[in-house]
Amino acid sequence: MGNFITGAGASMSLPFLPLFISEMGHFPKWELTLFAGAAFSVTFLSQAIVSPLWGRLADRTGRKPMLMRAAIGMTITATLTGASPNVWILILLRLIQGAFSGYINNAYALMASEVPVNKSGRTMGTLTTGNVSGQLIGPIIGGYIAGIFGYRIPFYLFGGMMAIAALTTFFFVKEEFTPITNQKLAKQSAFAGIKHVRIVWAMIISSMLIQAATTSINPIISLFVKELMHQHGNIAMASGVIAALPGIATLLAAPKLGALGDQIGPRRVLIFGLIFCAAMFVPMFFVTTVIALGVFRFLVGISDAALLPITQTVMTLATPSEAISRIFSYNQSAQAIGSVVGPMLASIVAGVLDYRYVFLMTTGLVIINLIVVVWAYHKDYQEPDQAE
């Protein structure tokens, strides 16, 4: 439920961030895409810096306090973002939000420490379903509301929804947590007890590259839709639908692919997802209508269901319980770095060339990711069956 609320609240406001910024001044195309990229990325920049600190604290105090910290922090910052008087204040608030965010990643860490090993894939798929279900409904509702009441209202709704997430977590989330008492263990590297370190590092790098690929379109999606629609019609609503389509596919596919990973091994599912993802990004370069863009965005959602939940599953199976929060915090930092690199690269590519070239850049990131995963498994080919 908390993942659903977080996904819905964030996606309710973020697809329209470039349009919100465009109302704050008369910016040329290159400046608008740069501001949009910065506004997206700065949240994840601060998140990447502080996540390891929160992860170490979580291994000592529990994951539930970290969930509460993230929910309350986003309640305050999201609400204030809606009241931003100019683009610089907006970027500053997004920076602060990143330092206190991380609800979804901590939810993964908490559940990874609670569920039996043989149900890890299904559990991660279910958590992802909650998140992407929110990402599915958020842009559609946000687009409808933004088209009628303006772009500030979705940010206020985001803040209100995170307040609900905080209350839900406080009253209904139970955690069986035993603090680490062995100080030597607490000071050890989080990777000390991991047998197949290359594979875990490959999953962390994969999280970064997957996030870079999937978020690269965020700063330009509403602007690209606006271009495809020739600036006619309800652009906010159309952008919301396009942003939501991958969530529909992920919602349908994530539990099934998670369970499939439990049966045949996450490695096969992950490699298939990467190949399929690259194959779906290339045609987006040639689309001339919003409908064609929507079809390929939907298909990318299927690959999303085979990527992030599977990387979470592999890390869960390979990591000792006493280090799980630290490993997941490093993973969150990697995702945050991807969310910085992807939108900023996309903003530069779109500003210098055109929106379409962003999809070619994204394809390159996915191919690099595929090479990293294949190399890591080749090097650590003698891993236990559950990590294959």
TrEMBL record:
Keywords: Cell membrane, Membrane, Transmembrane, Transmembrane helix, Transport
Lineage, uppermost ranks: Bacteria, Bacillati, Bacillota, Bacilli, Lactobacillales
Transmembrane stretches, start-end: 32-54, 66-83, 132-149, 155-173, 199-223, 235-257, 269-300, 306-324, 336-353, 359-377
All copies of domain Major facilitator superfamily (MFS) profile, residue ranges: 1-381
PANTHER family tied to this protein: MULTIDRUG RESISTANCE PROTEIN MDTG
Organism, scientific name: Secundilactobacillus similis DSM 23365 = JCM 2765
Protein name, as recorded: Major facilitator superfamily protein
InterPro entries recorded: MFS (IPR011701), MFS_dom (IPR020846), MFS_trans_sf (IPR036259), Tet-R_TetA/multi-R_MdtG-like (IPR001958)
Main subcellular localisation: membrane
SUPFAM superfamilies: MFS general substrate transporter
Membrane topology designation: Multi-pass membrane protein
GO CC terms in record: plasma membrane
Subcellular location: Cell membrane
Pfam families (alphabetical): MFS_1
Molecular function as annotated in GO: transmembrane transporter activity
